[in-house]
Structure formats: structure tokens, C-alpha cells
Design a protein that fits this description.
The protein is mainly alpha-helical. It is 68% helix and 0% strand. It has helices at residues 2-5, 13-39, 43-51, 55-64.
Length: 73
């Protein structure tokens, strides 16, 4: 198993910046989705977004975000 210890991975500054921007965008979308579902009082979507990060956020953006709100009784 000695050969595994000799393996190195180099990441350039540009790649690190791209990774950092990607992480910031994903977390920004997560926070935005959580805030918007809370203000719309969609508690099921809020739980789904919170628990299944980032899949819940993507599902909300593609499916539930663009559906009109149903009147609350």
C-alpha cells in the first residue's frame, strides 16, 4: 500500500476559485430556497429542501417554484 502514499493531486488557483464559487452558489441557492419556502408556508418543501440537500433544492427549483400558489383555507 505504499504507492497510495506517494500520490499527489495538484489544483491550480483557477480551479480553487471555480470550486469556491460553485460552493458559494450552491449554498446561496439553498438559503434562498429555504427562505422562500418558509415565507410561502410550504412546510413539506421546506423539510425536503433541508433534509435532501442539494437534491431538494433542485427539485423545488424545477417543480414547485413555478407552480402557482393554492389559496390557503
Amino acid at each position: 500500500m505504499r504507492f497510495l502514499a506517494d500520490t499527489t493531486i495538484t489544483v491550480t488557483n483557477g480551479q480553487m476559485i471555480a470550486i469556491a464559487v460553485g460552493i458559494a452558489v450552491v449554498f446561496g441557492l439553498q438559503v434562498w430556497a429555504l427562505i422562500e419556502t418558509a415565507t410561502r408556508r410550504r412546510w413539506g418543501w421546506l423539510a425536503a429542501i433541508w433534509v435532501t440537500f442539494p437534491l431538494g433544492t433542485l427539485a423545488w427549483l424545477t417543480y414547485a417554484r413555478w407552480r402557482p400558489d393554492v389559496a390557503v383555507r
